[in-house]
Design a protein that fits this description.
heterodimer; A: mainly alpha; two-stranded antiparallel sheet; 3% strand; B: 132 residues; alpha+beta; six-stranded antiparallel beta sheet; 5 helices
Chain lengths: 129, 132
């Protein structure tokens, strides 16, 4: 599958899940801040992506749920240095440069962009081929 | 913050969380995904409860909102699909619930006081979580 085909399918998937137009789904769009995704939407997105791409997305592989629940990585609402390193290691497609300057856990979800999904799927599908 | 609970024991307030789920949004989610997919968010006993309710969307909305309220109370939004199924909501009556982390032993459980609230459009839950 080409990168353009992956993008088209992701646009279709997110548009369906979030009730938005496909052309709003750009690689730089934040799922929460720009596309209005809420918690139920994240789950719906995972389920729909699994179906659209015929893959299983293990828990904690696409969105860093396991990290935010680890007390080593989050203290008093702030991601620790150890937590940032863990995020960078486990989620190389998550852009954390700006976020690292003020890593409030409440703002982590804003970093989840469409391009994060694209890069994740490109890697998964290349392994599957 | 330490407070004296009604039992007389000192407990530490961990946090308060509130979540709202739009009924239409939730119904759309349930229609778009299979029952087996949706059940990935539920513990074993919640699955049985949901089946017994003939897969009531209202019940699912309550369970979902309650779990989200708990996560927010602990400042841990978004724990992923597994995080949902590892938290078991125990509905006490129409308007209240407690919760149990299935990964923790009974002696280490937080005390959870939860309540539901509903409108025509939304289902909501509030969770007050105490560390005993």
């Amino acid at each position: 599958m080409t990168d353009q085909e992956i993008l088209s399918k992701v646009q279709e998937t997110l548009a369906g899940a979030l009730g938005i137009e496909q052309d709003e789904v750009t690689p730089e769009a934040s799922l929460t801040r720009d596309l209005g995704a809420e918690s139920i939407d994240f789950i719906d997105i995972i389920f729909r992506l699994e179906k659209a791409f015929d893959i299983k997305i293990p828990s904690g592989e696409l969105f860093p749920g396991n990290i935010v629940s680890d007390e080593r990585f989050v203290k008093e609402g702030v991601v620790t240095a150890e937590g940032l390193q863990e995020l960078k290691t486990k989620f190389p497609y998550l852009d954390l440069e700006e976020y690292s300057k003020d890593p409030q856990i409440s703002k982590l979800a804003e970093q989840f962009k469409v391009k994060m999904l694209l890069q994740y799927l490109q890697e998964r599908l290349s392994k599957k081929a | 913050m330490n407070m004296r609970a009604s039992s007389g024991k000192m407990t530490h307030l961990q946090g308060v969380g509130v979540d709202l789920v739009g009924r239409k949004r939730l119904e759309k989610f349930l229609k778009s995904n299979s029952k087996s997919q949706c059940q990935r968010l539920l513990s074993d006993s919640e699955k049985k409860l949901w089946q017994k309710s003939e897969y009531s969307s209202n019940l699912f909305a309550k369970l979902f909102a309650a779990k989200e309220a708990y996560f927010k109370a602990l400042g841990r939004d978004w724990l992923g699909v597994d995080g949902f199924s590892h938290l078991e909501i125990e509905i006490c009556n129409k308007s209240s619930f407690t919760a149990r982390d299935l990964h923790k032993q009974s002696g280490n459980q937080c005390k959870v006081s939860g309540s539901f609230f509903e409108t025509n459009d939304m289902v909501g839950a509030q969770a007050i979580v105490w560390e005993s």
